[in-house]
Write a structure and sequence with these properties.
about 10% strand; alpha/beta; 11 helices
Length: about 350
């Protein structure tokens, strides 16, 4: 946990205090200060639609990147940050929790005042304001920023109407490979939400993965895990369910929130035609592509990486890498769980036969 709630003193509001040992500031490097507090208090937030703000004397606009985890949201955030007027925080906000937990808690029970108008809409406006003020708070170390983004991997939804959304899609089979290495690397990391069966079975693979420094042995462990039906089924279902829900959500947004621009971007297209595609993304959020700096391996913005780094968050980034890990179990389970979703997203059920 990053925060705990201290029992308030008599006559004071409850406060959130940082747990000992946690960072004093975010990955952005911007620390809380009285000056920032005043700047945020003075920010003028647009109302209809709530997609802009005037902050520190400049007009800023907001955008969001969504998609299944391990679909390239971090890479796209790095690419957009090459632009002097764009800032995407290196961390994750997961703002949807404000709606899923905050708004529901305040407004769903019929015995609470928030269940009724005008309180329900007031709560929604308050959450939209919170999202924008949090995003504004991190831009202090990059003068001239006018476009502020969040890249949290999450299901598609319109959190703040009018703000452009880039929904990133990647071949689910490559997502399974990347997801496998990600959680093996975390040893085993945050798995509290996993089914009990996985919590019992997964740790032995993570232990084998970490007890060697030999990358080839680590790859062998990953391949063993990817031949386990319970694991492939788990990850394939995560991808298939979310991309199906995202497609439905994008359609619903076109009806319910027509003022919200949506771009569906394939990871593979950005990889194959990098500069033209990234220019389209800059234009989509309102930024001039000509102002963006060039990509480089140092900034982790060029497609792929010079070499595979098994223990690195940025491991390989190569479309079609799943072909090196496929086996009979992998092929069968992916086809059962994600075959239709692969076809719907334009990937086909199998690289070796037509969809």
């Amino acid at each position: 946990m990053w925060f705990t709630r201290r029992k308030p003193k008599a006559g004071t509001a409850a406060t959130l205090d940082k747990v000992e040992g946690t960072p004093a500031s975010s990955p952005s490097g911007v620390a809380w200060s009285d000056e920032l507090r005043q700047d945020l208090a003075d920010a003028r937030l647009s109302v209809d639609p709530p997609n802009a703000a005037t902050f520190q004397g400049r007009e800023c606009r907001f955008f969001f990147i969504t998609g299944v985890g391990k679909s390239g949201t971090n890479w796209l955030g790095n690419v957009l940050n090459l632009h002097p007027e764009v800032y995407v925080d290196p961390g994750e906000f997961q703002f949807q929790l404000l709606w899923e937990q905050g708004l529901r808690t305040l407004c769903e029970p019929s015995w609470q005042s928030g269940h009724y108008e005008p309180y329900r809409q007031a709560a929604r406006m308050g959450i939209e304001d919170t999202v924008r003020r949090m995003m504004l708070a991190g831009i202090g170390n990059k003068p001239g920023v006018r476009f502020i983004g969040d890249k949290s991997p999450r299901p598609f939804s319109v959190l703040v109407p009018g703000c452009p959304i880039i929904n990133l899609v990647r071949d689910g089979r490559d997502v399974i490979i990347s997801y496998t290495y990600h959680y093996l690397r975390l040893k085993p990391g945050n798995i509290q939400w996993w089914p009990d069966e996985l919590k019992d079975r997964f740790p032995r693979f993570a232990e084998d993965f970490h007890k060697t420094e030999d990358d080839e042995i680590k790859r062998r462990v990953a391949k063993q895990l990817l031949s386990e039906e319970w694991w492939v089924r788990f990850v394939a279902n995560i991808w298939a369910r979310q991309v199906a829900e995202d497609r439905k959500g994008i359609f619903e947004a076109s009806v319910d929130s027509p003022e919200t621009p949506v771009m569906t971007l394939r990871y593979e297209d950005l990889h194959a035609d990098f500069n033209p595609v990234r220019s389209k993304v800059y234009k989509f959020i309102g930024a001039d592509p000509a102002l963006a700096a060039g990509a480089s391996h140092k900034s982790r913005t060029l497609p792929g990486f010079k070499q595979e780094r098994v223990m690195n968050f940025y491991r390989k980034g190569q479309p079609g890498d799943w072909e090196h890990y496929r086996n009979d179990v992998f092929d069968r389970v992916v086809d059962e769980c994600a075959g239709e979703a692969l076809v719907a997203e334009g990937y086909g059920r199998d690289a070796n036969r037509d969809a």
